[in-house]
Design brief:
Layout: H1 2-6, H2 13-45, H3 50-98, H4 102-107, H5 110-132, H6 134-152, H7 154-201, H8 203-208, H9 212-238, H10 240-264, H11 270-312, E1 332-339, E2 350-357, E3 362-367, H12 373-378, E4 388-393, E5 396-397, H13 403-409, E6 410-413, E7 422-423, H14 424-428, H15 437-446, H16 450-455, E8 463-464, H17 473-485, E9 491-495, H18 503-516, E10 521-525, E11 537-542, E12 545-550, H19 552-558, H20 560-576
Parallel strand pairs: 3-10, 3-11, 6-9, 9-10
Antiparallel strand pairs: 1-2, 1-4, 4-5, 7-8, 11-12
Length: 577
Amino acid sequence: MLKNLTACIGEYKKPSLLAPVCVTLEVILEVIIPLLMASLIDKGITPGNMSVIVRYGIILVIAAMASLACGTLSGNFAAVASAGFAKNLRKKMFYKVQDFSFTNIDRFSTSSLVTRLTTDVTNVQNAYQMIIRIAVRSPIMLISAFVMAFKVSKNLALIYLAIIPILGIILFLITTHAHPIFMRVFKTYDKLNNVVQENVHGIRVVKSFVREDFEEKKFKEISGNIYNDFTKVEKLIAFNAPAMQTCVYACMILISWFGAKFIVSNSMTTGELTSMFTYTMQILMSLMMLSMIFVMCIMSKASIERINEVLTEQPDITNPSDPVTKVENGSISFDHVFFSYSKDMNKLCLKDISFDIKSGETVGIIGGTGSAKSSLVQLIPRLYDVTAGTLKVGGIDVRNYDIKVLRDAVSMVLQKNVLFSGTIKENLRWGNENAADEEMIHACRLAQADEFIQTFPDGYDTYIEQGGSNVSGGQKQRICIARALLKKPAILILDDSTSAVDTKTDSLIQQAFSQEIPDTTRLIIAQRISSVQNADKIIVLDNGCISAVGTHEELLASNHIYQEVYHSQVKGESDYE
């Protein structure tokens, strides 16, 4: 776990090392200052020697200024190192997520990944800054002050030995009780982020159904849970400060009591007693800082574990040792394919799927809701791997291809179309980053998108808001289809991606495909019979199994599922007319 984190220090090793070096120098100077003060009192102030007072005064000023400079430098180095460490950690996590398969992503919710990349990384950043600065300062200060106190008065220094075990027990009890609560709090943060994200994303639905009160109640409940947990843990941690103060004042009282007796008996000077008070404060302040580190470590331990879960997650879809780097054609072959999202053969989504598609064919896929149509096509570019059986593209098992090569050869327009914030051109160039304007316009014409794009004041430079909220569903679908075409794929998969366009536009898109990209294999998932009836073959899925394969006429004559869908749509159209 620590290996994953320390690797993120990277180019910030130098400030990470300089911070504790400067802290060490600062501590040495702070420990020397009480001795100088004792000498100033005993050799200068008490006998009234002005030259000694001036000499020690100058030395004290120099030591204090040097200590201040070292403290400032250590703070600067610690800030740079911790911020850089957090930057590298976020980068490593983000890049790791990019390598995840859909199965890996399904294990983490979006809100949880956001929390880990923000709140958890910030906690670890704060802990790292404390470790390279305060965690270095406190032990060195504690040991140095303790040694100097023993040097001044062994008898008074024994008081510290009686106090330290008491503080240790208190810190241990706080730590063991607070950590489980912090773990629970961060999981609740995931739920809170999920509620906020869901509400903002679906704000139009919330308002149209007048469900603001329900959403506010849901938010209040989760926010209240976080409040209650934090209140509980803060109450535990609050015992830390009074315990420390009690120990500080107890030491001060005991040292004052016994120190006064030692001065009366001439076994200690006034300057030495003054230095003992300073060392007492240094020792106990060091302990207090250590307790702060413990508290931060309690919080960061939970965050580190959550971050490590992401960093150690192994993608279940990886490149083979000697991958195939070219897809010869767009032929597809399913040979007794079984698929389960959980890899459990008792919870199959697709069962014994077998069919062949020649390169350049148009294949329609029809089926009811939940018949696993989307699951079927997502196996082709290896968004998921088959659980059993063999799936071939271009005559080669998809698991033998280089993943990038395979996915470059397969364009998918998913059921949930996604446009990113940026211009239409920038969104289109996701399909081909080097596409010329003429290529983009041609792809948009095939997708029946050019006409409406030209009506925008800025044309192809029109800015698309996040999620494509400033274009209609049909416009979004057509831009996504054009984006997929720019890849010039061997296989084009349209997953119900013309559902938001009218029948005429759908027909024009299909016609353009057959004329302009005849060599591209086209798989069309659709709810409308009209979208697939001209396909070379149509696959009818029912509950994860193939019910029938054939042309529109063959299925209309022999398959009852296809017949029901067809007649319901024809009847609906005639009723509408």
